[in-house]
């Protein structure tokens, strides 16, 4: 297997269009939605981490700064053929380190119910009731850093 690495980018990076296509294909198209019809303005304020293999995006997570030392982990995805190999865990740990380096004390996220167990194993705790987002069940979760 070729080397996998994590890279931080922003919306002006050459990899950003590839990231958008990746997010669309993994997170929106399966739900019958189109990422390119959404407001992507938050991306400009986000810390964006990509998992790359050679020049291909195989995973991503975005961190959106909030107030009071909080940051929102969003748009987390790992390409299906790379799931179950520990890459998601490494990516979240890298995201936590990035958040900590930017003086954040808490990470919040909206987990798809299918991913709740993944986040539980990493120390995230559910808070509140189940809700629907992008047409599927989610649960709010948080972790103190």
Walkthrough of the structure:
The chain starts with a strand and ends with a strand. The chain contains three helices and eight strands. The longest helix has 15 residues, at 87-101. It is α+β, with helices and mostly antiparallel strands.
Give me a quick take on this structure.
Helix content is 23%, strand content 37%.
Element layout with pairings:
Elements: E1 4-9, H1 16-28, E2 47-53, E3 56-65, E4 70-78, H2 87-101, E5 106-112, H3 116-121, E6 125-126, E7 131-133, E8 136-144
Parallel strand pairs: 4-5
Antiparallel strand pairs: 1-2, 2-3, 3-4, 5-8, 6-8, 7-8
Shape: globular
What's the number of helices?
3
pLDDT < 50 runs, ≥5 residues: none
**Helix content percent band:** 10-25%
Proportion of strand residues = 35-45%
* Mean pLDDT rating: 96
For the report, how would you describe the main beta sheet?
A: 8 strands, mixed
The computed structural class is alpha+beta
- Cα separation of the termini: 33 Å
Task: Please count the beta strands (DSSP E, at least 2 residues each).
Answer: 8
Q: What is the oligomeric state here?
A: single chain
SSE arrangement, N to C: EHEEEHEHEEE
Radius of gyration: 15 Å
